[in-house]
Amino acid sequence: MNYWLVKSEPDAFSWEQQVARKVEPWTGVRNHTAKLNLKAMKKGDLAFFYHSNIGKEIVGIVKVVKEAYPDPTAEKGDWVAVDMQAARAMKAPVTLATIKADPRFAEMALVRLSRLSVAPVSETEWRAICELGKVKS
Questions:
Q1: Which residue range forms the structural domain that includes residue 87?
Q2: Which residues of 108-121 are buried (b: 16+ CB within 10 A; e: fewer)?
Q3: Domain count within the chain
């Protein structure tokens, strides 16, 4: 299993909307590196759901339930989407400030590549963030 982080602006698509809709296509990614990360996702992989711009915190965990397919929102190009299912909320949201202040996350893509909307997360990072968020990894 691989671990990921996906970002969404909560005023565009929030964790609460993900939970309410249960399974939702993750669409609209228009960065080539992020697209490659979506293509690398496998059914059963887990991802942190991160509220960007407003909040700047990891608020939940989603599971990949359908691997990459053509993004229906793309007018042209080879953009892809994956379907995500809400798995569980973080009991304690983990803020970007907390992550940046912790040396365990110095090499994390969220810190190093701050604008990347779909990024890999190492197993060590995953376990540490789950611990901070008070959820089972």
A1: 3-132
A2: bbbeeeeebbbbbb
A3: 1
**CA of 25: how far to CAs of 46, 51, 91, in Å?**
15, 17, 24
Tell me how far apart the terminal alpha carbons of the chain are, to the nearest angstrom: 12
Residue by residue, pLDDT tens for the chain (137 residues) are 999 999 999 999 999 999 999 999 999 999 999 999 999 999 999 999 999 999 999 999 999 999 999 999 999 999 999 999 999 999 999 999 999 999 999 999 999 999 999 999 999 999 999 999 999 98
CATH of the domain at 35: 3.10.590.10
Specify if 87 maps to a domain: yes
Whether the CB-CB separation of 128 and 103 falls below 8 Å is answered with no
Q: Tell me 102's DSSP state.
A: -
Which stretches does DSSP call E strand in the chain? 3-8, 23-26, 46-51, 57-70, 80-95, 118-121
Would residue 137 count as lying in a domain? no
Which structure tokens are listed for 119? 């990024």
Q: What tokens were used for 82?
A: 């994956």
